[in-house]
Amino acid sequence: MAISSHLARLRSMIGHELILLPAVSVLVLDEQARLLLVRHAGQRDGWAVPGGAVEVGESPAQAAVREIREETGLQINRLRLRDTLGGPDYEVTYPNGDRVAYVTTVYEAGISAGTPVPDQEEITELDWFAPVHLPELDLNPFTRALLRATGYLPAPETSRA
């Protein structure tokens, strides 16, 4: 996971302690309404929605465009704000021990140019999935919660006593 110099400086002071971090998640849809999902380098916890941290001096919308370009090579357009999410479902512990509580701004976007290719630094694999196939996928917990919150996955059934 590449981190900004700002975050690297904070980590040098606080180590692996939990940090609250603004982020973006982008629901990129193709012309067939399929969703782009990625697999992160160094992590084996399932498919994920692409995105990342908002850098100092950057708006969430700018971060969304930058992250998708950096990770996949795609140029996106028609950014539409879907939600802002946070809480226990969006806490992540990375393989190096860093702990992050994300508050993620979720956008939906179309593609204006490019063919998606994983950057091989942060993203090792990507693919398109029809919403009907999402429930059966191996999704990481963050992504499963995000897709439920945005209506792409049904809420888990609760038993009635």
Short description:
This protein is of the alpha+beta class and 161 residues long. The protein has helices at 5-14, 60-72, 141-149, and strands at 19-28, 35-40, 51-53, 75-85, 91-93, 99-113, 123-129.
Give your account of this protein's structure.
With 161 residues, this protein is α+β, with helices and mostly antiparallel strands. Strands 1, 3, 4, 5 and 6 form a 5-stranded mixed β-sheet that branches. β5 and β6 form a beta hairpin. The mean pLDDT is 93.
What percentage of residues falls in helices of 4 or more residues? 10-25%
Distance between the termini: 44 Å
Q: How many DSSP E strands? A: 7
Order of helical and strand elements: HEEEHEEEEH
Query: Strand-residue fraction?
Result: 25-35%
Task: Compute the number of helices.
Answer: 3
What's the main sheet like? 5 strands, mixed
Structural class by sheet pairing and helices: alpha+beta
Radius of gyration: 16 Å
Q: Average pLDDT value?
A: 93
**Shape by Cα distribution:** globular
List the uncertain runs. none
Question: Which helices and strands, and how do they pair?
Answer:
Layout: H1 5-14, E1 19-28, E2 35-40, E3 51-53, H2 60-72, E4 75-85, E5 91-93, E6 99-113, E7 123-129, H3 141-149
Parallel strand pairs: 1-6
Antiparallel strand pairs: 1-3, 2-7, 4-6, 5-6
